[in-house]
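The records we work with from here on pair a chain with its fold. These numbers are not coordinates but entries in a learned vocabulary of local backbone shapes. To see the layout at work, look at the sequence and tokens printed below:
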Amino acid sequence: MNINEKLEKIRIVAPGTKLRSAIDNMIKGHGGALIYITKSPDNNSLIQLGFKIDCDLTPEKLYELSKMDGAIVISNDVKRILFANVHLIPDPSIPSSETGMRHMAAERVAIQSEEMTICISETRSTVTIYCGTWKYKLNETPLLIEKVTQVLQTLNKYFETFQSYVEELSMLEIENRVVLFDVGRVFEKGIRALKIISDLEFNLAELGDEGKIAAIRVNELKEEIENTLQLLLMDYTSTTEPENPAALLEDLVKSISKDTATYLDVFDYLGYPSSQISVGEQIVSPRGYRLIMKIPRMPISIAKNVVKKFRKFNILLKASQKKLQEVEGIGEKRALGIVMEIKALKRKVSI
């Protein structure tokens, strides 16, 4: 299962859903349950005995049915209760890390069917999700909210530092004083922030409606960081500019997002061998994508036309509005916008 599939499973039992309301009622009533979510209820060898229910799923109905022995089977879209008081019979030879009979059955059914099961512990008041070989134990909501709040504060600090590095890089670009180290530290800070966001996404998915405001903020930060890093990849890769910077960034994050990552990992990925002596002091120049894309509603295809026309960043910085309008797709407003952005950056440098 990939991350998105796992997040989708967690959202099924998030606060605000009917299923979560029923689960909360079970925990409050000190009850337990085993729930099997399947897309193939008919002719399913795992399902034995029980009663056919086939009714709309409501928290009240699911809670009352949980008082019966056996498992509850619900539809794959989590809209209907199909069976209750079911005896699930998975292959006993399937290895299980669980000790309790209910949890053991839930894990084995999930592995055998490659579908989702939910186990609510009567004695420990815990909720565990199983799907295939993946297992996830839900956190208590109050503790989860506290954790998300603390992590979000850390993330905001990372983002502030990231923005300051980006701003400094912009100044250095105008002065033609960028060395590879300046680019590397922007990537390093941005990738660490994306790693925090990746870990936080599970907690936000688990919070559901309780974490909507935090999720909006996290998505805003993620979009800003990813857009900036993608444009930096287009600006600073040593070979030809990447055709798919989003995919390239995803690979980059996966390859160097460990806590031990260094600038040298970034340099290697950008095409500057870290084995070279003083590689971080190597002078580099952007292609100009990040500058051009600051103009509102600027299509990347038009930005490519500008880069292709002027070829070098220092030539682009000296371009007149009239010269910019010679580029296909650049009209008077876009040309003026680029000129004004360059002037604004130069004013900041002169202060």
User: Anything to note?
Assistant: Residues 47 and 88 are 5 Å apart (CA to CA). The chain has a mean pLDDT of 92.
